Amino acid sequence: MDKTPSARSVRSMTEPRQGAQAIRRALAVLRILAAGREAGVPLAEVVQATGLTRPTVHRIVHVLIEEGIVERHGRSGRYAIGNQVPELALARPRPSPLLVAAAPSLRRASTEVGDTLFLTVRTGNDTLCVDRRIGAYPIQVLSIEVGARRPLGVSSAGVAILAAMPTQDARKIVAANEKRFEAYRTDVATVLSQTTAARRQGYNMREIGLIQGTKSISTWIKTPDGRPAAAMTVSAVRTRLGPRREQEVAEILLREARTIEQAIRGSLA
Predict the structure, then answer these.
(1) Would you call 156 helix, strand, or coil by DSSP?
(2) Across 112-227, where does the E strand assignment appear?
(3) How many CA atoms lie within 13 A of 243 on its CB side?
(4) SS3 of 6, please?
C-alpha cells in the first residue's frame, strides 16, 4: 500500500503551521507596539526588534489597522495600539489572582521600606509593570510607570525573572531579545552575567538603575507550578541602599514574595 502523502494531506499539514506562524508574527508586532505606548513606534524599529522583513511587518500592521487593533499617528507616522484593544480587555475586568494576592504585601512592604515599590509581571519575552507604590521617603525614584513594557533582561525585575528560570530557558529568551536590547544600551553577555549573579545571590541587585544615581533590588515570584511569573522591585537613590540596608530590603522583599506565592496557592486550592 502506497503511504506517500497526497498533495491534499501535505497541504492540510502545512496550512495550520503557516497560520500559527502568522499569528505569532502579529503578536510579536503587537508586543513591540505596546512598548511604545501612546507615542507609538516607527516601522523601522518594529522591523529591527522583530527580525521580520519590512514588507512582512508592513503587511501585518495594515491588517491590524483595518481591524482596529493598531492605529497610525498622522503627524509622526508612528504606529501604536488602537482603541479596539482596551475594549477587548473589558471582557475580563477582574484582576488576576497574582494582583489580588500581591496587594497586601505591596502595601506592607511599601510602608516598611519607604521607597518606590514596583510589581512587574512576565508576558511572553517581555516584562510589564502592573503596580507601583510610592513610599514615604521625600525622594522617590519613579523610573517606570504602570503599563511600561520592556524586553526581559532590560530592567532589574526582568533579570530577576530570568534568574528564576532554568538556565537554558533564560538563554533562549535572552537570545530572542538580542536585537531589542540595542535600544536599551545592553547586550546578551551583560544580561546573562547579571542573571547568573542574581541566581547565585538569590535576588537581583542592580548597582546602576534606569535613572542615574539610583539602585534597584528585585526578587522573583513563582506560580504554584514553579514558573517565575513576576518580580517585586524597590528602587531608591544610591545613598539609601548601602550594604546593610540592601540586605534589610532584600529580606523584606524575599519575605513578601514568599507570602504572595502562598496566597496564590491558597486562591487556587
Answers:
(1) helix
(2) 116-123, 126-133, 149-151, 204-206, 214-222
(3) 0
(4) coil
Euclidean distance between CA atoms 108 and 98, whole angstroms: 16
DSSP-derived 3-state class of residue 264: helix
What pLDDT digit, counting tens, does each position of 156-199 carry? Answer: 999 999 999 999 999 999 999 998 898 888 999 999 999 999 99
Which residues are within 8 A (CB) of 8 and not within 5 positions of it... i.e. 6 or more apart? none
**What stretch of H or E contains 233?**
strand 228-237
Which grid coordinates belong to 89?
480587555
| 261 contacts 221 by C-beta, under 8 angstroms | yes
- Give the separation between CA 170 and CA 164, rounded to whole angstroms: 9
Beta strand segments in 78-175, E = 79-81, 116-123, 126-133, 149-151
Assign 216 to helix, strand or coil.
Answer: strand
Q: pLDDT of 90-131, one tens digit each? A: 676 677 888 999 999 999 999 999 999 999 999 889 999 999
At residue 202, φ and ψ (nearest 5 deg) are 95, -5
Q: Within a 10 A sphere around the Cβ of 60, how many other Cβ atoms?
A: 21
